[in-house]
Every structure is written in structure tokens, then in C-alpha cells.
Design brief:
- The structure is a single chain.
- This protein has 159 residues and is an alpha/beta fold.
- The protein folds into two domains: 1-68, 2,3-Dihydroxybiphenyl 1,2-Dioxygenase, domain 1, CATH 3.10.180; 72-159, 2,3-Dihydroxybiphenyl 1,2-Dioxygenase, domain 1 (Roll).
- 32% of the residues lie in helices and 28% in strands.
- The strands form two sheets. It has a four-stranded mixed beta sheet with strand order 1-4-3-2. Strands 5-8-7-6 form a four-stranded mixed beta sheet.
- Helix 4 packs antiparallel against helix 5 (150-158).
- The N and C termini lie far apart (49 Å).
Length: 159
Amino acid sequence: MSSKNTVCLWFDGAALEAARFYAEVFPDCAVGDIVRAPGDYPSGKEGDVLTVEFSVMGIPCLGLNGGPVFSHNESFSFQVATEDQAETDRLWEAIVGNGGRESACGWCKDRWGISWQITPRVLTAALKDPDRAAARRVFTAMMDMVKIDVAAIERAWKG
């Protein structure tokens, strides 16, 4: 791994499966070196995948198969900026449709419990609008959404 700073994600035996899924679904992802345990450890046996290096949209990550002791929560998430409704739908369905689950306001979780924010760029732009009334309309519309509806955000922004 050549990066000095890497996101380490804890998995219960599924690090390689998750890395391969991310590489299939998201652009600029790759699976790198796989390290197998040189001996038995509390949550695995010699030869099991211990770690896997991978990247998620250019962000270097290390999947650690540490066992069931820790689980993911919303305090960490990947935020993915999408260009349009089609990209938003494709990524949302890939995550939710493969054992994940929906949350609110553009958030969802994959089947391993990693949180994702599938965020259309128009939403981010609208929330930054110096016209605070327009930004408030967009915010109010977003608060009622699960997956972000680009057309509804644009309507709210225009008033």
C-alpha cells in the first residue's frame, strides 16, 4: 500500500467480498493485495483472509477481518456525489438491492453495515444557495426523502 493514510474498515470475515462488490459497483475502485493469516487468531484460522487492500473511488482502504466484536454505524459514511437521477438510482439500487437497507435523506447501508450517502450534486449546490429561502425549501424537501429525487429538489429550489 503506497498511501500514507488509509481508511481501515472492520469486517466480520467479509472484507474481500465487500472489496470486490465496491470494485464492481463504483468507478475508480480496485482490489489490491490480500494478506492471509499466518496462524490461527481469535476470529479466524491460518490461511483465512486477514486483510485486503482496496480503493473506493480513489480513497485507499484496508479491509480487516477482525471478527464480530465491532460493527459499523452512521458516524462513518462514504458520501458519493452523483451527476443525475440515473446515477443516483444505479448506485442506490446496487447498495440497497444487494442486501442493504434504506435510511433517510439519501443515506443507505450496504449489507456489511457501511453507510453511504448517495448525494446528487444539485442537492449540494442548492443547500449552498445564498438565497436562504431557496436553500430552506430544498432542505425541507430533502427531509421527507429516502432516496434523493433530483426533479423534486430542482422544483423546490426554483420555488
